[in-house]
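W.,

You were right to be curious about this one. When I first looked at the sequence I had no strong expectations either way, so I just let the prediction run and decided to look at it fresh. Below is the sequence, 136 residues in total, followed by the output.
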Amino acid sequence: MGDFEFAGVSEFRKAIDTFVTRENTATRAAVAAAAHVIEASAKEHFSGSHAKGLPHVGGSEPNVVSGSLRRSIHVEGPVSNGLFSWTAKVGPSTVYARAIELGLRQNRSVKYPYFGPGFTESLPRVRKIMTAAWAV
């Protein structure tokens, strides 16, 4: 049997490592950017304001009373789940956030969605961010 020598293996490995690093970095950055777009869009779905204890000021979006709910919408991450896999969590942290979005306990018909509409409206921008990140 003869001896074989393969030329270019180390260069090939270096090219693959460079590709993996570049794409993983791009994916992380895209997930972070997309999460912040969703956060901003949800925060834009508040309108009007009133003092605590006063009734809602028209419209189908939540009002700003203290600003706590809107300020509580934030991004956590991105966190790596493995190669090319990143997760970011976006959402509110106030106890009453779900009641405002889906309906108050006493009256489920009184709801002021902000996160769902914000998320839906952000999807075209999120798609552009992801597409641009992976364009070679």
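Here's what jumped out at me. DSSP finds four helices and two strands in the chain. And, maybe more interesting for your project: The mean pLDDT is 91.

Coffee later to discuss?

I.
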